[in-house]
Amino acid sequence: MASNVNPTVRRRRLGQELRRLRELKGMTAEEVAERLLVSQSKISRLENGRRSISQRDVRDLCGVYDVEDHRIVDSLMQMAKDSRQQGWWHAFGDIPYSVYIGLETDAASLRVYDPQIVPGLLQTPQYAEALITGALPETAVSDVEKRVNVRLRRQERILTADQPLRLWAVIDEAALRRVVGDRQLMREQLEHLVEQSQLPHVTVQILPFDMGAHPGISGHYAILEFPDAADSSVVYIEGVTSDLYLEKANDVQKYSVMYEHLRAQALNVEASRHFIANIAKEYAR
């Protein structure tokens, strides 16, 4: 398998193509499910890329949709084969947000709003360890270490990649004031944040407390965009037991507009750096 094959993105592209073929045929997901003697939820999961799809599934669906062009069938079958390969994150075992990691790995840009913590791509190893330990107190030390290593591997997208991820982070002042670990650790984390914000492809803006109510008051979310126009943008909302992925154009547009308002209300880039640096100095006292 070529190293640039991302199984998560392959599943999304394949699902989108299968949905297109179904709609061209004028069939509902329920009608397809009845023809194949499977549940409607399976058809929906295949089309939204949330589960692996076998070559047999592709063959059966192409039969239902009367796809006679063997080149199309072969192409879809190859995509199904690629989608069942494992991404780099699978080497770390069971990762609860593996779908998100797959999307982030292939994304061209990421816009994130975080009201409570420094975003994962901008965390120091020590901050990440203290954060995970505090958030998941019953997690084994080995699992904490695994999660930290995954986070550091994700950071390669902005540190060493030939085509780095374009990251735009709006961070609430609360994330800077919340002492994760100890004051020394927080000072080092904020100094690291200032340093990372100077990368040409990284933008950091701070939303101070005195800005009052704002469009991100409901919580964290991220918007991922991809280099291939065939891959629709995704809004990611992290949950405790499950995550939410929004791909409908209307949903993405609403969150994008919200993000523009957040960026407008936040301090500009230079003022944000000074703001972070000043709080870091407070931790040094």
UniProtKB/TrEMBL annotation:
Ranges where the HTH cro/C1-type domain occurs: 18-73
Pfam families, per database record: DUF5753, HTH_31
InterPro entries to which the protein is assigned, alphabetical: Cro/C1-type_HTH, DUF5753, Lambda_DNA-bd_dom_sf
Signal peptide segment: none
Coiled coil: none
Protein name listed in UniProt: Helix-turn-helix domain-containing protein
